[in-house]
Design brief:
Layout: E1 2-7, E2 13-19, H1 21-24, H2 30-44, H3 103-119, E3 123-126, H4 136-145, E4 151-155, H5 160-166, E5 172-176, H6 182-187, E6 190-194, H7 195-205
Parallel strand pairs: 1-3, 3-6, 4-5, 4-6
Antiparallel strand pairs: 1-2
Helix pairs in contact: 2-3, 4-5
Length: about 210
Amino acid sequence: MANVAVYNMEGNEVGKIDLSDEIFGVKVNEHLVHRAVVLHLANKRQGTQKAKTRSEVSGGGRKPWRQKGTGHARQGSIRAPQWKGGGVVFAPAPRDYSFKMNKKEKRLALKSALTSRVQENKFIVLDELKMDEIKTKKLKNVLNNLKVGRALVVIHESDQNIVMSARNIPHVQTTLSSSINVYDVLKYNTVIATKAAIANIEEVYA
């Protein structure tokens, strides 16, 4: 069972906490972690690229000239691909890039990502994170006290003061413990989680 330090908002160590091996001490499965990241990025793709084929371009209903006797090559429509203003051959159409992973695979991928952050000493536990007002400078001071730059801040309940304060800090993102994902865990150098958030993660993903 991993035993990590607990810090306060001033950056001082105030205790220790035991992290569940079932969540933060699993064998890292790099294949599933990779699949989870690809899944996240693929599901974000809009897939809205579109071009018109010859059947979709307006016009071209009349044969431009008769079949024989003109000296020209035979043509059936001025909207054929070889004409200016014609349709596109094998034109791209909107498509869905998303795919699915099994629930057990998703869970194991998240556990693997969290475990890797703990093993690399890039997982910081806060006893609590409270802000009385929306103040970017105050949250920035907390990060400086923890000596953290790029960070994912995981909180238990939605707190508008924290979310709004973090929004203008480059390379810092907040997320709820109930909606944490592999991509965000790996995207940021450090994961900062409150004790309440960790308790919720261990309860949900145990």
